[in-house]
């Protein structure tokens, strides 16, 4: 009746304004419901495709290690999708809670550490002393290299005999709700897979030797769930990177499984990072199914700093949109080094002397701050670069078109402005070597980079590797970092997610 009375007191203009506001709110609600349903439909469709790949007979075309890796990735993808669907459904009051399957008890022979959770006070609000009437016990599987143990969480139940009040400590939050792994075990699985290049079927054998062979399907489910939980951190790391004025970029091919064809095709892991001179040390990987320049444009959308990269054409559109290009002196030098190493070219040998002189100055500049570095380069590098430029022009006039020496000369001449941009800016590096070193771990484990066709496996790997490699860049033990983050993440406010990023993280001892 109150609402009706309010409407009755409104004049015509107020009624029209109220009606317009109500129509807008209804439209917004419908749009939100529609977008949510579209997302649910997309995830459901993707899950159906993955299940068909998993159980279809044609997947038997994959043999040996490829089949193992395919199975692992599909399991992880399915678990990640299930977690995303559950998160969407929780927002819907009509959603039916998923019934949890009964889990077999953990082995009795494994050592157990009892962790008790009791109320801070055993005095009831009415003044009576609470009486302990029982307890709830849950067990979590923990792991340190080579040794399993069990955390036995005991939550005492306390009751007031006068007012029948029941008091019990809350359940500690975990990344995998109601799951058996501790944050330490999950960190071990992720570090072994994404840093030590151990596929899950190998980890299954390693765990078996430690006393409990965890099925690779279970490990894959854990990886999938952790991937969803860690994605906001990877997204925040990307935002921190794009707030910098200078960014490195490079890309490397990796094999991606095509389940329906029983073979692999070439995908790419794009790598972006801060310079060695930046106080923020971070690297962010972006997995894509091709080397098309659109992937770099999508990742760097809205950014307009200086990009340190090679001469790959995929970056060219960025320079037309306001991004400044800084070339890689090492790439230019490499063209002449190949000629000298393979053909003992005297022209290449002379070019290498020029590049060597520039790099001698850079070895000194590396120890200076940005202003001092710029002054040193202007004083000593600029004259050498100007002389080199004149020499390149002279040699190009002598070289025959199409020859290897002509191509090496053209590479430097056509990109001269970008190659020497570092001389006028102390914040810029001379080359792209810093980010190439961030790609090296991927090259070492390339035989394990075989992903499912949905891209989820590659994107999940990119997120985990971004955090792990950035932790290493900041001098952290990746296992200690991930273990602490996975312990804190379930209760950490989303608005303060940046506190858990590798460059801002402090060891638990330092926090304590």
TrEMBL record:
One Pfam match: LZ_Tnp_IS66
Coiled coil (residue ranges): none
Domain Transposase IS66 zinc-finger binding, residue spans: 122-163
Domain Transposase IS66 C-terminal span(s) in chain numbering: 466-503
Domain Transposase TnpC homeodomain: 42-115
NCBIfam families, per database record: transpos_IS66
Protein name in the entry: Transposase
Species the sequence originates in: Quisquiliibacterium transsilvanicum
């Amino acid at each position: 009746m109150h609402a009706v009375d309010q409407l009755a007191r409104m004049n015509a203009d107020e009624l029209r304004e109220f009606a317009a506001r109500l129509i807008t709110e209804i439209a917004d609600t419908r749009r939100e419901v529609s977008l949510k349903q579209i997302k649910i439909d997309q995830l459901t469709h993707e899950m159906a495709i993955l299940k068909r790949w998993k159980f279809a007979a044609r997947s038997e075309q994959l043999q040996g290690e490829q089949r193992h890796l395919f199975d692992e990735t599909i399991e992880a993808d399915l678990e990640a999708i299930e977690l995303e669907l559950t998160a969407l459904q929780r927002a819907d009051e009509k959603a039916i809670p998923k019934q949890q399957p009964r889990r077999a008890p953990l082995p009795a022979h494994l050592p157990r550490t009892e962790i008790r959770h009791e109320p801070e006070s055993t005095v009831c609000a009415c003044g009576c002393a609470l009486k302990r009437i029982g307890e709830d016990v849950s067990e979590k599987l923990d792991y340190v290299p080579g040794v399993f143990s069990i955390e036995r969480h005991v939550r005492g139940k306390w009751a007031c005999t006068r007012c029948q009040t029941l008091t019990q400590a809350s359940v500690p939050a975990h990344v995998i709700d109601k799951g058996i792994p501790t944050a330490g075990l999950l960190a071990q699985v992720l570090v072994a897979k994404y840093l030590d290049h151990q596929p899950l079927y190998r980890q299954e054998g390693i765990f078996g030797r430690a006393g409990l062979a965890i099925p690779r399907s279970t490990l894959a489910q854990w990886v999938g769930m952790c991937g969803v939980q860690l994605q906001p951190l990877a997204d925040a790391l990307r935002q921190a990177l794009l707030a910098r004025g200078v960014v490195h970029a490079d890309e490397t091919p990796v094999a991606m499984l095509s389940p329906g064809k029983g073979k692999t095709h070439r995908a790419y892991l794009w790598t972006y990072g801060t310079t060695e001179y930046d106080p923020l040390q971070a690297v962010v990987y972006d997995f894509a199914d091709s080397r098309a320049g659109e992937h770099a444009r999508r990742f760097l959308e809205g950014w307009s700093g200086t990009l340190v990269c090679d001469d790959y054409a995929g970056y060219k559109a960025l320079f037309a949109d306001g991004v400044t290009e800084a070339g890689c002196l090492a790439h230019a030098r490499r063209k002449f080094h190949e000629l000298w190493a393979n053909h003992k070219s005297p022209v290449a040998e002379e070019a290498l002397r020029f590049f060597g002189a520039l790099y001698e100055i850079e070895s000194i500049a590396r120890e200076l701050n940005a202003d001092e570095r710029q002054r040193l380069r202007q004083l000593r590098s600029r004259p050498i670069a100007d002389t080199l430029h004149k020499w390149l022009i002279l040699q190009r006039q002598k070289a025959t078109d199409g020859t290897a020496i002509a191509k090496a000369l053209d590479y430097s001449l056509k990109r001269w402005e970008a190659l020497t941009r570092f001389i006028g800016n102390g914040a810029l590096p001379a080359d792209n070597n810093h980010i190439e070193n961030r790609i090296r771990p991927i090259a070492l484990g390339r035989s394990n980079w075989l992903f499912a066709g949905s891209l989820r496996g590659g994107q999940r790997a990119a997120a985990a590797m971004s955090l792990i490699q950035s932790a290493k860049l900041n001098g952290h033990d990746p296992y200690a970092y991930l273990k602490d983050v996975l312990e804190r993440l379930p209760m950490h406010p989303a608005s303060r997610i940046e506190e858990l990023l590798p460059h801002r993280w402090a060891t638990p001892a330092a926090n304590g």
